[in-house]
UniProtKB/TrEMBL annotation:
Domain of life: Bacteria
Protein name: Uncharacterized protein
Length: 129
């Protein structure tokens, strides 16, 4: 439980961020959320990744909750009061154990208010810190 208090704070920070209306829309006209996710990751981490690409990608990153989510790359796009969250796995070990996840982009669409409620429930189950 060493990370529980930090995890709880990170989850609550995400809930507060979403409750305040934050979360940018899809940045590329005509691209699906899945295609946008892949485009944002095209040069991620490359030595020659332009700073502008890094900054753009960083605007959409979400679920940065430490060891609990460090095998997942997630992006969030807001469409009015709905959220579209894309996720992909990146660790080699995960891909070896779950080859069907290689290259897959998982997509979740949910009302923002509902997702905030889920996050608040997670934080409540972790207790106060």
């Amino acid at each position: 439980m060493a990370f529980a208090s930090q995890f709880r704070r990170d989850v609550l920070d995400t809930a507060d961020w979403l409750r305040s209306g934050q979360g940018p829309p899809l940045p590329f006209a005509g691209l699906s959320a899945e295609a946008t996710h892949q485009r944002l990751l095209r040069r991620a981490g490359d030595d020659d990744e332009p700073e502008a690409d890094y900054q753009l990608r960083s605007r959409f990153r979400v679920l940065l909750w430490g060891p609990t989510t460090d095998n997942v790359t997630a992006h969030l796009f807001r469409q009015e009061e709905r959220l579209v969250i894309t996720l992909s796995f990146w660790r080699r070990e995960h891909m070896l154990n779950h080859p069907g996840d290689a290259g897959a982009v998982l997509t979740v669409e949910t009302p923002a208010k509902e997702f905030v409620g889920i996050l608040e429930g997670i934080a409540a189950s972790l207790g106060s810190s």
